[in-house]
Amino acid sequence: MTYFISIFIPIVIIILEKNQINYMEHISIFLAKTFHFFHKDKQTKAILIKLIHKNPESYMAHKMLGKIYEKEGGMRKAIDEYVMAIDMNKKDYETYYNIAFLLDKLGKRDESIEMLGHLIDKKPDYYEASEFLGKLLCEQENFKEAINVYMNALKYNPNNYDIYYNMGIAYTRLNDFQNAKICYEKAAEINSMLYNGYYNLGIISLLYDDLDEAEKYFMEALKGEDVEPESYYHLSRIYAIKGDKEKAINYLNLAVQLDPTLSKKAIADPVFIPIQRFIPQNVNMQNYDRTIKMKLKEKKAKEHLENTFYIVGKISKNDLKKMHTYQEKDIRIEEKGKELEN
User: Fold this and answer.
1) Is the dihedral of CA 264, 297, 214, 223 positive or negative?
2) How far is it, in rounded angstroms, from Cα 4 to Cα 209?
3) What residue spans do the TPR repeats cover (predicted)?
4) H runs (alpha helix) in the chain
5) How many domains does the chain have?
6) Could you tell me the residue range of the domain that residue 183 belongs to?
7) What is the CATH number of the domain that holds 180?
8) Among 211, 18, 23, which residue's Cα sits nearest to residue 9?
9) Which of 255, 293, 295, 329 has the highest CB neighbour count under 10 A?
10) Which tens digit of pLDDT belongs to each residue from 261-298?
């Protein structure tokens, strides 16, 4: 590496002098980048600190030093350097985002949200910032504001699967099942291969007492990479209600094979009374270990839907409309989508 540097440094100096550029700063940055490329962070840091001591206004030095501190786990030091960097370059949106990310890691959620809000005001098409802000707001259960963030992001990303899916989760938590259903369906339309919300659509269809539509969605859910045992369970319930005992028994067996705890649930479910003697009994729980590959917000939305379904059962569309808690700003996703397409 020493040989490499000894050859290129003189060449770089000549070029910089010819163009009347402060070559000492550029040489220092070049050296720092070279050492960083070879994973020599100690030497990189020493060069940058020395450069900042000589020139406190070196934007690139502050930014690079911040990245090294972040890599080392020194989040507060990293934030200090990043703040210096954006003071010198107000359009460094990536560094704004990095600060917000680190603030959240330090447990300063409100400050992180405020920083992301400022960032989106400056650059409203910054998708990653909108996604992160929506996530933080949902974790605070501020679903109304999260929906506003997602709606703004749709202006710049009208066919983004994640935005529609995340909006579906937010609407679900607000009991606005009509708009949740529209969002989940739009997400599936955009990319059915990545879609993991068919289960939620199935439960929403059950809430509307639409067994045929629920059956369709649960069948789609079974095509996913991570199959929900509850999809088999609800298909079994649907067939039991429809009087197709053979299918009800088969799907219940599949559900219990994947999740033995569903056996006890089925025994207590009056829907299964006609096939009660066929419910698997005394299932072996010894080696059962179900790992749920699901984000926290997805898990909470799923649990919310299930709890709503088991508490109220089937309810009319008028009753569901009355359950909406998002009254201040009733957003019609379908109409908004049409506006974006035109």
Assistant:
1) negative
2) 73
3) 59-92, 127-160, 161-194, 195-228, 229-262
4) 2-18, 23-37, 41-54, 59-72, 75-88, 93-105, 109-122, 127-139, 143-156, 161-173, 177-190, 198-207, 211-221, 229-242, 245-258, 261-267, 296-312, 317-323, 333-341
5) 1
6) 175-285+299-342
7) 1.25.40.10
8) 23
9) 255
10) 899 999 999 999 999 999 988 766 655 555 556 677 78
